[in-house]
């Protein structure tokens, strides 16, 4: 709604007085508005609040009355009218035209709430000026002075008010993730250190919110997007100035996407959010994932990629690759805060490593050199030392703890040396990391007990002949068949190894193990009883809960 204000520097706001009450009820319909009092029943002669079609009726009236000016020098939202112009002389003419129409239509304004011929005013909760759009100081003051929540309702109210200004805050979804967890259904109220930090950090970010530029549709737009473990982020820009920020906490299956897919998903969500800006004219996509440069040249795509590429190709875009250290804005949206906040939440006393940098034999000199400016690839952030986007870990027990966590902690599967090293390399840096990983992995007791040594295969011999029918069976799938009228595209084949009798059971390629097990009991066990042995290949359906 405010996107058309670019280039304007003089503004007027007109607020209608009791807008709904300036619309007369249709004669004969007054009875529909009847309300009961102790003195009897009364009916509204003008349109009251609370009628289902009242908002649309009033908005339709305003659009009809000001139809000649909307999109040229007027923005209207219910009873709020904004008049914008490029200079004062032009503005006086625009103002006169609007007032004449309001007088003709007998619509009256509330003078106390009107603002005339100014370069800066509050409209719909935003500060509107020639420089751009900012947050309303009064609303930010309310957020800043918001007391610590004591129940879910108060958290939901704070989150709702803060979300109104989410377009001004980098990585809002990741910042607010601890609060989002609290307001989920069937989750009891729990206010811990993570929630307290998120609560205070959102207050700080909104207090220092940037001024967003107004879009100029005559110039090209630019998008920077990036993704991290739990969130995606993007920024819409023109000539280096941000127009809007976008962020989203990813959940469900998206959490398991590889890095390439998360990068593409961030791009897709950004395009969906800002498509009204991007469709008319060619724009630039900046990314630090080099493989996105070759998006148009890929010949083999899975279903998800094909769907995404089909959507992306509806836009007139150009992709430009930026190294991660150059793509500072989007990286900051998704990485830095997530890493530090996660470590601080999971490792008690994590802040103590700040004190170890000064005298550390690996990072002491570099840490001192980065006191004021970056030193090569190293720089300081919040008292921590980073090498590009990786946290530098000084010599301490923390190194061993991180290796053990990456190897066998949480959801880690006691990976080998190479995979454990890859997990650590994504977020951390210290000299001779490989040597530390090798030493700790080789001493892992769980790995020594569980991982048997691979022995050479023995001599292949034929399976023994069963002693009777349906004691020993074999099973497999025939896939890739034309789809039947009922949508079946595969056959589940079960063969008795004694009599060679076979059952051919139609099914879907996408059926999971539980459905195949159901077919097995329905079509085989019901007729022939339970077999003693089953021969099959290592299909995922058989290796699952079958």
Task: List the SSEs and their pairings.
Blueprint: E1 10-15, E2 35-37, E3 40-42, H1 54-65, E4 74-77, E5 80-85, H2 88-104, E6 115-118, E7 120-123, E8 126-129, E9 133-135, H3 137-144, H4 152-163, H5 172-175, H6 177-182, H7 193-207, E10 222-227, E11 231-238, E12 241-249, H8 259-273, H9 275-278, E13 283-287, H10 303-312, E14 317-321, H11 328-346, H12 353-356, H13 364-369, E15 378-381, E16 384-387, E17 390-392, H14 397-408, H15 417-425, E18 428-429, H16 433-442, H17 445-450, E19 472-478, E20 490-496, E21 502-507, H18 513-528, E22 533-535, H19 540-543
Parallel strand pairs: 10-13, 13-14, 17-18, 19-22
Antiparallel strand pairs: 1-5, 1-6, 2-3, 4-5, 7-8, 8-9, 10-11, 11-12, 15-16, 16-17, 19-20, 20-21
Helix pairs in contact: 3-7, 8-10, 14-15, 14-16
Instruction: Find the count of extended strands (DSSP E, 2+ residues).
Output: 22
> What is the CATH class designation of the largest domain?
Alpha Beta
- The portion of residues assigned to helices is 25-40%
CATH superfamily of the largest domain: Reverse transcriptase/Diguanylate cyclase domain
Q: How large is the radius of gyration?
A: 32 Å
What is the strand arrangement across the widest sheet? 12-11-10-13-14
The number of distinct helices, counting runs of at least 4 residues, comes to: 19
Architecture of the largest domain, CATH level 2? Answer: 2-Layer Sandwich
Mean pLDDT over the full residue set: 81
Biggest beta sheet attributes: 5 strands, mixed
Low-confidence stretches: 332-338, 344-348
* Beta-strand content bin: 15-25%
CATH domain topology of the largest domain:
Alpha-Beta Plaits
Structural class: alpha+beta
Number of domains: 5
Distance between the termini: 56 Å
Shape: extended
């Amino acid at each position: 709604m405010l996107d058309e204000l670019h280039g304007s520097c003089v503004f007027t706001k007109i607020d209608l007085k009791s807008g709904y009450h300036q619309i007369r009820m249709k004669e004969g319909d007054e009875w529909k508005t009847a309300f009961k009092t102790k003195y009897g029943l009364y009916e509204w002669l003008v349109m009251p609040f609370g009628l289902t079609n009242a908002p649309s009726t009033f908005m339709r009236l305003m659009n009809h009355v000001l139809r000649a000016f909307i999109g040229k020098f007027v923005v209207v939202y219910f009873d709020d009218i904004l008049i914008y112009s490029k200079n004062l002389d032009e503005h006086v003419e625009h103002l006169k035209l609007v007032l004449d129409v309001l007088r003709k239509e007998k619509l009256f304004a509330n003078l106390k709430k009107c603002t005339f011929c100014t370069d800066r005013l509050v409209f719909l909760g935003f500060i509107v000026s020639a420089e751009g759009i900012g947050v309303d100081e009064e609303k930010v003051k309310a957020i800043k002075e918001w007391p610590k929540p004591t129940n879910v309702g108060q958290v939901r109210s704070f989150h709702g008010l803060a979300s109104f200004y989410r377009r001004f805050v980098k990585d809002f979804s990741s910042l607010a993730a601890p609060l989002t967890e609290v307001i989920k259904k069937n989750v009891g109220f729990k206010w811990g250190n993570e929630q307290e930090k998120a609560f205070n950090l959102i207050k700080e970010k909104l207090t220092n919110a940037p001024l967003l530029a107004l879009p100029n549709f005559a110039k090209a737009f630019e998008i920077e997007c990036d993704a991290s473990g739990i969130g995606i982020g993007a920024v819409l820009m023109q000539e280096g100035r941000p127009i809007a920020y976008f962020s989203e906490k990813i959940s469900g299956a998206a959490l398991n996407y590889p890095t390439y897919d998360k990068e593409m998903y961030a791009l897709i969500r950004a395009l969906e959010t800002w498509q009204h800006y991007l469709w008319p004219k060619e724009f630039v996509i900046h990314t630090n994932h080099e493989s996105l440069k070759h998006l148009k040249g890929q010949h083999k795509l899975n279903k998800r990629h094909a769907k995404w590429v089909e959507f992306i190709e509806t836009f007139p875009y150009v992709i430009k690759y930026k190294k991660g250290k150059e793509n500072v804005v989007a990286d900051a949206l998704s990485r830095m805060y997530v890493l530090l906040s996660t470590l601080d939440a999971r490792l008690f006393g994590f802040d103590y490593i700040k004190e170890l940098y000064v005298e550390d034999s690996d990072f002491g000199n570099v840490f001192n050199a980065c006191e004021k400016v970056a030193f090569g690839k190293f720089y300081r952030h919040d008292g921590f030392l980073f090498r590009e986007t990786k946290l530098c870990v000084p010599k301490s027990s923390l190194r061993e703890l991180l290796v053990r966590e990456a190897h066998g902690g949480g959801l880690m599967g006691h990976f080998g040396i190479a995979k454990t090293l890859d997990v650590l390399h994504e977020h951390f840096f210290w000299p001779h990391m490989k040597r530390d990983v090798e030493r700790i992995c080789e001493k892992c007791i769980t790995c020594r007990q569980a991982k048997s040594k691979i022995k050479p295969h023995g001599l292949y011999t034929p399976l023994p002949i069963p002693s009777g029918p349906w004691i020993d069976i074999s099973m497999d799938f025939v896939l890739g068949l034309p789809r039947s009228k009922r949508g079946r595209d595969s056959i589940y084949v079960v063969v008795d190894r004694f009599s060679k009798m076979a059952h051919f059971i139609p099914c879907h390629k996408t059926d999971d193990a539980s459905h195949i097990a159901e077919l097995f009991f329905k079509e085989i066990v019901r007729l022939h009883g339970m077999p003693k042995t089953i021969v099959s290949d290592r299909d995922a359906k058989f290796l699952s809960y079958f």
